[in-house]
Every structure is written in C-alpha cells, then in structure tokens.
C-alpha cells in the first residue's frame, strides 16, 4: 500500500465532496434543510419543494458514484490488490471525507448558514445554537457528554 498516495487521494476526495455539496447548498438551500436536525427540518418544511429534494438526491447519488469511481481508478493505478489492501485504502480515504464533512459542513457550515439566514422558516431558530445542535449530533454526545 502506498500510504502517501492514499492520504492525498483522501484529501482530494474530501475537497471534491465538500466543494460540490457546499456549491449545491448555495443553489438549493431549502432542499438541504431535510438533512439538518429535526427541529430545523420541521421549521423549514413548508418552504421545501419535492422537486428540489429529488434534484438534491440525484446530485448526491451522482457524486457518490463519481467518488467510488475515483477510488476504484486510483486503487487500480496505484497497483493495490487483494481485499485487505483495498478495504484499508477505501477506509482511510473515506475517513478523510467523513472528517472533512463533519468539520467543514457540519461545524463551520452551520455557523455560516446560521449567520446568513439561508433556510426559510428556520431563521433565528433555537436549533442553530450549539446546545441544540450538539443534541442531534452523535459525535458530540460521544466525545463531550454533559
């Protein structure tokens, strides 16, 4: 296994994933409200259009497919063979994507969205505060119990 290449591929995938999701969030902010905590989701529900949600899911499905394709092509050109090596390569690369998603979209993105009031119906909602956000995020309940 080529560890530096795996790390770089993970970082590239993280950047691509977060950039695409953030870009389409700027275009369709109401559709992404279905992925927020329950209280925000309920507050924004009257403004969410089914067509936008379907479009968002299509975009995400295409993104997931392209990321899987990138992983497969990269593993092939890196000469990674065998189940164990492929498993750990995919695991490490997706770990970068998941950590980047958490930090960039869930933590920093929440602060940006809260300040800009981009989600109609959820402006100044208590669900944007850290205390409420922490309740719906599994990571916080594991790392920082009250």
Report on the structure:
With 146 residues, the protein is mainly α. It has one domain. Helices cover 77% and strands 0% of the residues. Helix 1 runs antiparallel to helix 4 and helix 1 packs parallel to helix 5. The chain starts with a helix and ends with a helix.
Features:
146 residues, 0% strand, mainly alpha
Gist of the model:
The protein is built from seven helices and no strands. The protein has 146 residues and is mostly helical.
Overall pLDDT confidence: 84
Structural class: mainly alpha
Overall geometric form = elongated
The domain count comes to: 1
- Helical stretch tally: 7
Radius of gyration: 18 Å
- Proportion of residues in helical segments: over 70%
- In percent, how much strand structure appears in the residues? under 5%
Number of DSSP strand runs: 0
Q: Biggest sheet, in brief?
A: none
Termini separation:
41 Å
The ordered string of helix (H) and strand (E) elements is: HHHHHHH
Low-confidence runs of at least 5 consecutive residues: none
Mind sketching the topology for me?
Layout: H1 3-27, H2 29-32, H3 38-44, H4 50-78, H5 83-116, H6 130-136, H7 138-143
Helix pairs in contact: 1-4, 1-5
């Amino acid at each position: 296994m080529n560890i530096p290449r795996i790390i770089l591929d993970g970082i590239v995938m993280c950047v691509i994933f977060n950039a695409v999701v953030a870009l389409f969030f700027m275009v369709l902010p109401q559709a992404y409200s279905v992925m927020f905590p329950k209280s925000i989701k309920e507050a924004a529900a009257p403004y969410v259009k089914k067509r936008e949600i379907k479009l968002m899911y299509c975009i995400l499905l295409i993104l997931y497919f392209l990321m899987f394709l990138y992983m497969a092509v990269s593993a092939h050109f890196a000469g990674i063979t065998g189940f164990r090596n492929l498993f750990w390569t995919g695991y490490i690369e997706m770990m970068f994507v998941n950590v980047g998603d958490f930090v960039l979209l869930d933590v920093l993105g929440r602060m940006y969205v809260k300040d800009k009031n981009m989600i109609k119906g959820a402006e100044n909602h208590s669900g944007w505060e850290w205390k409420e956000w922490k309740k719906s995020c599994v990571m916080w309940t594991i790392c920082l119990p009250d």
